[in-house]
Design a protein that fits this description.
Layout lengths: L3 H14 L2 H6 L12 H11 L10 H5 L5 H4 L3 H25 L59 H12 L2 H11 L3 H17 L2 H8 L3 H18 L2 H28 L5 E3 L3 E4 L5 E9 L11 E3 L8 E11 L10 E9 L4
Parallel strand pairs: 1-4
Antiparallel strand pairs: 2-3, 3-6, 4-5, 5-6
C-alpha cells in the first residue's frame, strides 16, 4: 500500500489490534482458536440475519438489540465478549466520527442523509447504508477536540498521530477539496433550499409514510428510504446539487477508509482476487468497478475490502464491494464457480 492514506490506516489497524479489548473481540473472527467455538456460534447466529455479516466491527452493538443473542451467551466469558464487542463498536464509531468532524460545516451539515429516517442513520439493527451517522456522536463536539483517546479499548496505545495523519490524507483528496469548495459556494438561498429539501425528505420517510408506501417488511422499508433519498438528491440543481453530490463523494471515501480499517481488524489480511473480467467506470478518488473471478472462491461479504490484482497497475488496487453474487459450479469442477463483485476501486491504492 504505497499511498499514505492506506498505509496509515493499516498502521492504525496494527496498533488497535494489540489492545486488550480488540484481542478479545477478535475471538469471534479467529479461524485458529483452540477450544473456543465462539466464532462458529456467532457465524451461525449472523447466518440467520445475513445483513449482520456486513460491518463486523458493529456486530456487538447490533447483536445487543436482538433477542436471539441471549442463546449465544453460554458462559460468563461470552457475556464479557459481548460487553467488549459493544465497547469496541463504540470506539470504532468515534474514530469514524472524528474523521467526519473535520468536514467543513460539521456538525451542521445541510444534507438529508443524516436526518432521522435516512438509510445512513441507525434506526434498525439489520439495515444500514455505510457506517451509521449517529446524532448523539455529533453532540460530542469532536470538531473542537484533539483526536479521541483509545483508552476504552484498554492498554496504553496512543493513536493520536495516526488519526490526525488519516485526516491530513483525507483533506488532500480531490473529493474533500470538492466538498469544501461546494460548501463555501452556498448562498443564503441555497441554504434555504437545502433546509427545505431535508424537511421534505424527513416528511416522506416518517414511520406512517414508509408503512403506507412500503409495508412492514424491513428490507422493503429500507429500500424505500434509499430510493426516496436518491430521488430527492437527483431533483436538486445548481450549487445545491453540487453540494449534495460532493458530500456523497467524500462520505464514500471516508467509508472506504473505515472499511479498510475494519477489514484489517477483523481478519488476517485482505483477500486477493485475480479477475478474468473487469470493467471500470469514471471517478476521481473512487471508481465504479465490476469484476468476475473463477474458481472455488471463499464466501465474502459486501463491505469487507478486497485487493484486486488486475492485469496492470491501473486495474489493481483496493476494492470496496457493495454487492457480491456467487454462482456455484459442479462439485467435481470447482473452477466452474464464479464470484461477481460490484463496488468501488480506490484510485492509487495498488
Amino acid at each position: 500500500m504505497t499511498d499514505e492514506l492506506w498505509s496509515t490506516a493499516a498502521a492504525l489497524a496494527a496498533a488497535l489490534k494489540d489492545t486488550p479489548k480488540l484481542r478479545d473481540f477478535r475471538r469471534a473472527f479467529d479461524l485458529n482458536a483452540d477450544g473456543d467455538d465462539l466464532r462458529e456460534r456467532v457465524s451461525t447466529l449472523t447466518g440467520q440475519y445475513s445483513h449482520l455479516r456486513s460491518y463486523p466491527m458493529l456486530v456487538g452493538m447490533r447483536l445487543d438489540s436482538l433477542p436471539d443473542t441471549a442463546e449465544l451467551l453460554q458462559t460468563e466469558q461470552d457475556k464479557a465478549w459481548l460487553t467488549n464487542a459493544i465497547e469496541t463498536a463504540g470506539a470504532f464509531q468515534v474514530i469514524v466520527e472524528f474523521w467526519r468532524s473535520r468536514l467543513p460545516g460539521y456538525p451542521g451539515l445541510r444534507v438529508p442523509h443524516i436526518r432521522r429516517g435516512s438509510p445512513h442513520v441507525f434506526d434498525d439493527p439489520l439495515s444500514i447504508q455505510g457506517f451509521p451517522w449517529d446524532p448523539e456522536l455529533r453532540k460530542l463536539g469532536l470538531q473542537l477536540q484533539n483526536p479521541p483517546p483509545m483508552a476504552p479499548l484498554g492498554g496504553g496505545t496512543d493513536c493520536r498521530h495516526l488519526l490526525t495523519t488519516v485526516v491530513a490524507c483525507l483533506k488532500a483528496r480531490p473529493s474533500w477539496r470538492r466538498f469544501a469548495t461546494a460548501y463555501a459556494s452556498l448562498s443564503d438561498s441555497d441554504l434555504h433550499a437545502l433546509s427545505k429539501l431535508s424537511k421534505e425528505f424527513a416528511a416522506r420517510v416518517g414511520e406512517d409514510e414508509v408503512t403506507e408506501a412500503a409495508g412492514h417488511y424491513v428490507l422493503d422499508r429500507f429500500q424505500f428510504r434509499v430510493a426516496t433519498l436518491r430521488e430527492l438528491v437527483a431533483s436538486a440543481d445548481g450549487a445545491v446539487a453540487e453540494y449534495l453530490v460532493a458530500f456523497e463523494a467524500i462520505d464514500e471515501v471516508i467509508t472506504f477508509v473505515a472499511s479498510l480499517l475494519e477489514t484489517l481488524l477483523t481478519s488476517e489480511g485482505l483477500l486477493t482476487v485475480e479477475p478474468y473480467r473487469m470493467a471500470l467506470g469514471a471517478g476521481i478518488d473512487l471508481r465504479a468497478v465490476e469484476l468476475a473471478t473463477r474458481g472455488d472462491a471463499p464466501l465474502h461479504n459486501p463491505g469487507t475490502l478486497l485487493f484486486v490484482k488486475g492485469p496492470d497497475q491501473i486495474l489493481s488496487g483496493l476494492v470496496h464491494p457493495t454487492a457480491i453474487t456467487h454462482k456455484w459450479g459442479r462439485l467435481d469442477d470447482p473452477a466452474a464457480s464464479r464470484m461477481i463483485i460490484r463496488g468501488k476501486l480506490a484510485v492509487g491504492s495498488s
